[in-house]
Amino acid sequence: MPWPTHRPRRLRDSKVIRDLVRETKLSPDDLIYPIFVVSGKNHKIPINTLPGQARLSPDEAAKLAVEYRNLGGRAVLLFGIPDYKDEVGSSGADPLGPVPLAINAIKEAAPDLIVVTDVCLCEYTSHGHCGLVENNRVKNDPSLAHLAEQALTHVRAGADIVAPSDMMDGRVGAIRQVLDKAGYEDRPIMAYSVKYASSFYGPFREAADSAPSFGDRRGYQMDPANRLEARLEVELDLAEGADIIMVKPAGPYLDIVREVRNLIDRPLAAYQVSGEMAMLKAAAAVGALDFKAAALESLLGIKRAGADLILTYLAPEVLPWLGK
Ligand code: PB1
User: Fold this and answer.
1) Do residues 26 and 303 touch, judged by C-beta distance below 8 A?
2) Which of 203, 117, 200 has its CA nearest to residue 166?
3) Number of structural domains, the chain?
4) Which atom of ligand 1 lies at the shortest distance from residue 34's CA?
5) How many CA atoms does the CB half-sphere of 116 hold within 13 Å?
């Protein structure tokens, strides 16, 4: 029976009724805050392409962690910016590198904050690719041991979860095997399983100084035109031992978030990347958007599409606005 029997507006009539029947809600537990760490002390170097973000030394990362925890934040994701780079990204497995030292400092200052670490070679290699390079080609299998060694270094330093973002085939299984062999069978893997060769990573690459010195990442990250292929990536990573599946980027890929949500009964993460954040900030800066409303709406859309966890640089800004 259509109108006048059915009137959808009855449930939009007041804020309290709308609050009562709202289908999707954002919570502090949904958010993971990516931060960039460097070596040294007293460093808080603003990242121009990521307004509000900075390259933090371990002591400054610990201070930020306490502030973030006090806002109700539950988890951070660490990206390391090393003092040295080489062809195989060995600084990524240096136990005295920025990520292990930041883990120690954060865990000491905010023990109940979950620390996730990004595992990849691009920040640590002189060529800026996510795997080893031979004859200008990114070699898959030789990269796996280096990625697993980096993950083990992070876990030994106290990382709660490791998150391989490299998109090499077989890396989840390789990391799982090395962690289990070393006695860390209890540490989860959050796999960037469905990660696209996106043009929305620009600000990050500048922040992390991780742009490839030649070519691009289309030989290992997914083609933005592909949806069905996401199913294969998810299936393989789950079979290799992934505990959490991630889709990345998020906003331009909500159809993929929904597709993967409908496919799996495991926790699903989605990463609102640097370019997504930069667009929101730039539009708000010229008065084209109300930043608070647009930021919350962008995150709500990612949650509504099916993500349980959202990686976002906006986390500390939006936390005070949740539930209001
Ligand atoms: O916010 C972002 O843009 C994240 C970028 C992402 C980090 N995992 C990758 C960007 C890239 O492909 O260069 C880094 C890959 N390891």
Assistant:
1) yes
2) 117
3) 1
4) 1
5) 24
Model pLDDT, residue 202? 93
Q: How far is the CA of 271 from the centre of ligand 1 (A)?
A: 10
- Tell whether the model's pLDDT for residue 101 goes beyond 80: yes
Band (51; pLDDT cuts 50, 70, 90) = confident
How much is the pTM? 0.97
pLDDT in tens, 246-288: 999 999 999 999 999 999 999 999 999 999 999 999 999 999 9
For residue 200, pLDDT over 80 is answered with: yes
Catalytic site positions: 195, 248
Q: ∠246-252-258 over CA atoms, to 5°?
A: 55
28 secondary structure, DSSP code: G
Cis peptide before 4 (omega within 30 of 0): yes
Ligand 1 centroid vs 203 CA: distance in angstroms?
9
Q: Is 47 in the pocket of ligand 1 (CB under 6 A)?
A: no
Q: Confidence band (pLDDT; 50, 70, 90) for 49?
A: confident
CATH number at residue 220: 3.20.20.70
CA distance linking residue 22 with residue 296, whole number of Å: 15
Domain extent at residue 120: 24-321
Is the beta carbon of 165 within 6 A of some atom in ligand 1?
yes
Q: Using an 8 Å Cβ cutoff, are 31 and 25 in contact?
A: no
